[in-house]
Amino acid sequence: MTEKKPKKKIGIVLSGGGIRGIAHLGILKAFINAGIKFSHVSGTSAGSIAGAFYAAGIDPEEGLNIFMRTKLLRFIRPAIGSLGLINIENMRDVLTEHFPHDKIEDLKIPLTICATNFSEGNLVYFTKGPLIRAILASSCIPGIFRPIMIENQMFVDGGILNNFPVEPLLNNCDYIIGSSCNHLKPVDKITKISNLMQRAGIMSINHDMERKAKFCDLLIEPKGMGEISTFDMKKAESIYWVAYEEALKTIKTSESFQELINT
Q1: N or C: which end of the chain has fewer CB within 10 A?
Q2: What is the reported pLDDT for 79?
Q3: Where are the active-site residues found (predicted)?
Q4: pTM for the full model?
């Protein structure tokens, strides 16, 4: 009797990136269509939202529809007189509709959510406890959103300290796929200060991502995503399909991935 080899554990890390994080949904959908099931997901900020949808068993295309149908950003309202201009807590209602059990450990597959403890100045990985609170903390861009309070401490966007949280996958997975949605194309001039600041910020997080990419067996990074504004909801659908096509192309041409699925 031939003994069957145990299935390899495949993990995926999802970067932060605002609305560009919808690219993760397109990438996840491509892998689903290729017959791949992930054993662990790790995500920061927008990557934590996409990762939560996947880990809850919500089809990525339905995740896109949720963004399109609810116009998720309209749930964000000003938080006047606070430490941020916008109150991200207003996203809770729409998230509760799709995550009614609200526990990370109740998801269908393990999910790690990366956030920054702003009170203590350190990185935190949530693997259990309230799901929605962890998502809000991980997505809370300081200076734009009011910090999320957890056990009397302030939490903000995980991307401040780790925008590509591959570390939780290293000892849990045999094969790691990276999904980054912040690729920058070369430019020869910039005319707006806002574009200059956004590009500088993305260059900083990309430098850290490139260092960590060596831990990934496969990296998918749709070209030019970094040019898209963090809150440009009008680009949501095109982001999804560009990323989906990029993932399909990478799946077909990656020798290491083809070897993985054929073993």
Answers
A1: N
A2: 58
A3: 45, 157
A4: 0.91
The Cα-based distances of 186 to 183, 194, 224 in angstroms read 10, 17, 9
Cα 65 from chain centroid (whole Å):
17
Catalytic (active site) residue 157:
yes
Separation between Cα atoms, residue 7 and residue 49, nearest integer Å: 27
* Residue positions counted in the chain: 263
CA nearest to 49, candidates 3, 6, 84, 92: 92
The active-site residue, picked from 45, 138, 139, 180, is 45
Confidence of residue 82 (pLDDT cuts 50, 70, 90): low
Strands (DSSP E) contained in the chain are 10-14, 40-44, 77-78, 86-87, 111-117, 122-126, 148-150, 153-157, 175-179, 218-220
Please report where in the chains the tokens 């996409």 appear, as a residue: 50
Q: What are phi and psi of 2, to 5 degrees?
A: -80, 130
Catalytic residue (one of 42, 48, 157, 179) = 157
Instruction: State the average pLDDT over residues 21-49.
Output: 96
